[in-house]
Amino acid sequence: MAEIDKTAGTTTEKAGGEKVPPGEPMSMEQHMLDKGAHMLQSLKPIKQMNQHICTFAIYSNDMTRQIETHHFVTRLNKDFLQCAVYDSDDSTGRLIGVEYIVSDKIFETLSEDEQKLWHSHAYEIKSGLLVNPRVPEMILGPELENLAKTYGKFWCTWQVDRGDVLPVGPPALMMSPQPVNLGLVKPDLLKKRDDKYNISSDALKASRVEIPEPEWINPQADYWKQHGKGFAVDVEATEMKKICTFP
Q: A Pfam family matched by this chain, by name (predicted)?
């Protein structure tokens, strides 16, 4: 491991260039505790993550900022998935957010204001942007057809692309790439991902041409396409509800 810089604003790197937050190396006691806990505790929610999806996301309020994302998926039922989102699939991958994925059936039950925060997945699937690394396409067929009809809401809690070495500030709403002007993934970002997994997004796009397009994509999703406006979260002080006199 590279030498630890004790200043809070500095990222350190392991051999191979994997970045880690500032801090001291783990002690032997911490290693032993983690090993013991791993043996004794069930970790049931973690063990339900059975799928790794790699795709791309764009900041809702800034289309110039695009990131590669790695979603580790838990399927709660046929209509609802939840994803822990990392910046890579390396051992030191940083947890940068969470995405919830719902079927079109559930999406239609949401209020219009809520639907504005969600994005559709059809284009990600059909264009070959969304991949399951190392899983053969012939196995993925039915899953991709189902995902093409879903909607996602993705909150980024750690903006590593702007150099944040710690998860600071409010969460950012993310949106999905779409086939409109400036809504496509930057070529260099796409090439880097494809080279890493030895795949061709163009070839995947050609192989997925038979995947049916959704009969209808709700226009409240991908709100920016219709209105040219995104959403940003701000933090403001507010009166707190109290259970007793304070101070």
A: DUF1264
